[in-house]
Write a structure and sequence with these properties.
single chain; alpha/beta; Rossmann fold; 7-stranded mixed β-sheet; 3-stranded parallel β-sheet; binds uracil
Length: about 210
Amino acid sequence: MGNNVIVLDHPLIQHKLTLLRDKSTGSKEFRELLDEIAMLMAYEVTRDLPLKEVEIETPVGKARSRVISGKKLAVIAILRAGLGMTDGILRLVPAAKVGHIGLYRDPDTLRPVDYYCKLPGDIQERDVILVDPMLATGGSADEAIKLLEQKGARSIKLMCLIASREGIEYINHQHPDVPIYTAAIDEKLNEHGYIVPGLGDAGDRLFGTK
Ligand code: URA
């Protein structure tokens, strides 16, 4: 197993993830749970943001207190399931800019091809949190990271919900400098590239499509 992976095993995250995995959970509840988990995960993913001291005045006197310093954040969602994680993160870091990357799988090469990429103009000056709930083969995340790097992004964290061992190993190999934050690591992929046991198709469950 690659060593650049952080499993966020907070009890609240694990409890909500169990509800999310359950096939009887409908789209409304799925959306709400994914949103809540993304917010809880963002708390951990932003744990190493640098702070600086400032002087403020409380109603009682002067105080030196800390605020976030350094680069600003960008949340980049891989379409379409990544959309389900952006709002939860933005609730904690409302000043973050949001970008979108759309990928489809070429039926001949089976490689992901980008059909849409809209990023904040100052992406090279921002710390990036790339979001996609399911890290399966790692092909989409690999492509998205390459795109981000081509556009000048230098500091990228990958945040997913469930990762396969294969996907983690692939991303660790291709991008050893990109830490992976996940709520769970699942055993394997099936013949259709779905994570087992996973939660099914995250996009379909989120948007009620099939
Ligand atoms: N994408 C999904 O939505 N689910 C999987 O299990 C794998 C990829």
